[in-house]
Every structure is written in C-alpha cells, then in structure tokens.
Amino acid sequence: MKLTIEVWRQAHRDAEGRFERHDIDGVEPHLSVLELLDALNEQLIDSGNDPVAFESDCREGICGACGVTVDGAVHGPEDNVPSCHQRLVGYPDGATVRIEPLRSATFPVLRDLVVDRGALDDLVRAGGHVAVNAGTAPDADTVPVPEDVAEASLDFAACIGCGACVAACPNGAAHLFAGAKLTHLALLPLPALERTRRAKALVGELDELFGPCSLYGECEQACPAGIPLTAIAAVNHERFLAGTRRRL
Predict the structure, then answer these.
(1) The pTM is what?
(2) Name one GO biological process term (predicted).
(3) 219: which residues sit within 8 A by CB, 6+ positions away?
C-alpha cells in the first residue's frame, strides 16, 4: 500500500521545527512505525537528502528508546504498546501518518524525533537506586521474600523508562515513573533500608523537574510496561511516610 508520512524535522534544540511530507510506496501492513521510518530514511538517502534522526535499540519493547508520537498518540494508536511494536495494519491505502517527537517541556527536542529524557535519569540518580553496602552475596534464602511481594516488586520494576507517561500527561508529570521506582524498591528488604532517604530525594527531584499529576490517568493508558495507577498513589504515600520517620 501507499502511505503519506508527515514527519517532524528539527536541526537542533534551538532550531525552528517543521513537518515534512513524503510518500512511500510498497508499505506492508505488518511493518512497525520504526520500520516505516527505516523505509523513509532509505528513500531520503537514495535521493541525496538527510535521514530522519530517531532513537531505537532492541526493537523488542524492552529498552524504552523508541518513543515517538504517532497521530497525536504517545507511541501510537494502540494502548500500552511501544513504538517499535505499533503496526500499520490499521491504516488504509493512501492514509497519512503523522510522526513527531514525544511532546513535553521536560523533553526538549535534540534533533528531529530525538528528545532529551535526561530528567528521568536525574530521578534515578536522586533515589531510584540502591546504595546499601550489602557486603558479600548472601545465600538466596538468607533474607526471605514472600512470593507475592517479590512478584509485585517485579511488576513495578518492569518500567522501561521510555517517558511515555510524561508525554501523555498534559501537566508533564512523571509520577507513574517515580512511583514505580519507589514501590519496586520499598517492597524489598535491603532497598527498604533506604526508604526514607530515597523518598525524600526522589520526590524532591520530581517536584522540581516535572509538573503535578493531572489525576486523569493518561499515563497508565500510554505505558507499554503496564505500570498501574497505584504507582502514582505510592508517591504521596512514600512522601508522607518519609515525613513521619526520623531515621534514614
């Protein structure tokens, strides 16, 4: 089939961006959004033009690098699916596909479809990690963790850091991301030793860098890892507990 692509082009962070329009023939419906961009870049290179810059890595829905906005929807029209798995099967022959970067004031455009998601890294540096000196590796059963607790922690640890929650939120909030980090680590014995310090540092950085939660849950609908809205509730829960504890 033949598709028309309207793709965002922007030379650098301070440049004025614009949409470019291109027609592509021979598009197979099973192709992903990223494969459509691959086909576009082949066409651009063959014609002596600069290819469109975009990020991708594993293309298996694991790395979180591939996020773009397709027809106004973060990642694409299908809920809870990363851009690399968004297929073109829903587009009829002759349709127009508009592809642009993730849109958030916290994610400035670096070039074309590539944005700077460094603010999420700032959250991880502030508190989304474990700094406890655990010494040598203990036996696996030294610190027992109930199966349901371990499974719940892993569910929140599934966050791939793609930034879809921030781009989907009209306020540019990162509460789903932050709550996933806080909950994942608070449920496990050794990381929980730093629970108070972690909550204070991470929530403080969250308030400084991102907007307030919109309370509508757009983030859950966009999240390809299926992080539940309970992660957002965890932000205020951990904030409150940190304010009532005296020790780290």
Answers:
(1) 0.92
(2) aerobic respiration
(3) 164, 165, 166, 168, 169, 173, 175, 176, 229, 232
Task: With CA atoms as reference, report the closest residue to 67 among 168, 139, 146.
Answer: 168
How far apart CA 125 and CA 132 sit, in angstroms, is 14
Nearest residue to 19 via CA among 7, 31, 5? 7
CA distances in angstroms from 14 to 75, 116, 234, listed in the order given: 24, 13, 37
Sequence-distant (6+) residues with CB within 8 A of 154 are 184
Confidence check: pLDDT of 104 > 90: yes
Q: What are the pLDDT digits (tens) for 153-182?
A: 999 999 999 999 999 999 999 999 999 999
Residues 121 and 240 both lie in one domain: yes
pLDDT surpassing 90 at residue 221? yes
What's at 17, amino acid-wise?
Answer: G
Q: Clarify whether residues 213 and 236 are in a common domain.
A: yes
Same domain, 231 and 123: yes
